[in-house]
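Appendix B. Extra example for self-study. Work through it before the problem class; the solution is given directly after the inputs so you can check yourself.
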Amino acid sequence: MKSFYKISFLLFLLVFVSSCSSDDGGIVELTGKGMVKIEFDNSMDGDDLLLSSSSYTNSQSETLTVSRLNYIVSNFSLTDEYGNIFSYPKDSGYFITSEESGNTEVVLSDVPAGRYTSMTFGIGVDQEKYSQGAEGQGDFLTVAEETNMMWSWQAGYKFLNFEGTFTSPTVTDDKNFKIHMGSHGSSLDNYKETTLTFDTQALVSDDLSPIIHLVVDASFILDGINKISLTEQAVIMVSEEKSPKIAVNVSNMFSVDHVHNGNDISH
Amino acid sequence: MKYIFWIPLLFAMVSCSDKGEYIELNQDEKLLVTLPSNFPPIVYDVNKNPPTKFGFSLGKKLFYDGKLSANGFISCGFCHEQRFSFTHHGHQFSHGIDDMEGTRNTPSLANMAFFSEYAWDGATNHLDLFPIIPITSEVEMGETMTNVLQKLKDDTEYQKEFNAAFEEGGVNHENFLKALSQFMVMMVSYNSKYDKYVRGEDDVSLSEHELQGLYIFKEKCASCHATDLFSDGSFRNNGLSPNPRLNDLGRAEVSGNVNDNYKFKVPSLRNVALTAPYMHDGRFGSLKSVLNFYRNGVQDSPTLDPLLKSEKGLGIALTENEELSLISFLETLTDEQFINDERFTEY
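Solution. Structure tokens for the complete assembly:
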């Protein structure tokens, strides 16, 4: 008899709870899966980044004209309002955003429904991935090669490829600069992760596919927490001293501008 | 002798029909990787990429295929010749497309599965990723990974072979690199006279002279050329005067650390009698010159290996007689079985 009451009570509770969530016009229940698009809007200290066109003067009195800005972003994970973390599958979790090819959007598909409040991702390729060798490489080598991100003599990847010309008080003629940053074989790991909190929750469901609009301030690469002077060294490819500093600067160049919720693909 | 035994894997069930024996054509089988009892543990994770009959033969075909280079002629096997333990005999530097020359001497491929760093400077720490370096090097094969893949995709034979060799078939970079690794992982050189002596096989013994060389080796060389791989896999500056034309910084080119200047990977000495010329830049034509260098030619510099510097001076003290004994010992590391192993031969 006792158990009968228990079951009745539970049934009652179930009906009560479900009616609450579906009929009351309260919080909409999100079900199924959706897509999350992340737009990397590259800029320079508040100005739009125009390749081989506009110039930008930084706090070190160096004036840069940028001709290339490519970087690898990877290992995306999204955290919902309850602290549940959804990690995007590692085998398909590496993307190259390239300003010159106009490919500045990352699309995460089959993201479980939820109200996401923050996102974590890596810049570059982590040691775990390197240690897998060919496993799970897919066509990433092809993509990396097409975007000048394969670092053949390191048998790996450039995490950042930032190139252009600059002048400074002591360098009066345009001089080329090249910043290639990545891990140095087994001797130095420059992979970094960053976590960004959303101002509004990103809603994902069968009907909702948000766009997370990030602003990427590329001036941080040289002019962030760490100051890197092009006048001192214009080509930085494998520098045990400067590459880690650049890696830290790069991990700080991302911020969330706004989140679009809805299902309009283009917004 | 210890082996990993792979249970033969049948991709397709072999059915016995009434008519008698029936042989399934699509039958792959796992291959056995030799783990010699006198070797340190294998580093390559064969569980992630277990060599199979089809994967290995695909890897071999790729290894000897000039398609991997820009001009269609330079294959991996062009510089890695089996009879010289997969080195480029008689060539100081690797020769690539358009007769261009590299800056480093071709290293041997023997026992690569037992190492954790590849190339003279450790540009990669995974065997799977190593082929990217020579394929894309402008002075070696001068190709792009993308182009190589396209050429293979356009070849119906390769399409079939990729599909047969890998459960998740298809001509892609993952399978391409895995096949090459399967071929290289099988290249274990472990049957030299020395090996048979240390394992007590076939009543092989070393001569007085060779034994004397072995004792000198253990005393004066084995701290770097350690274990029966004859390398501890570390990067060291052995005191070679830098070639002013190249000024190759070695490990520092990868690490960006000045403390790594002029350090190169300690090479294995297996089959060393066959792999002249010697050193990362192939500057020495004979083992005698190498030993003369250690006796008389070591140059001091901030990164010189401390083991080559003592109160008595630089380098390694050796008498003429000790030098001769050492050379006879080094000659016992030649593995005829390996260099004649038909599994690895081009034709």
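Self-check: Chain A has two domains: 1-26, 31-260. If your reasoning did not lead you there, revisit section 3.
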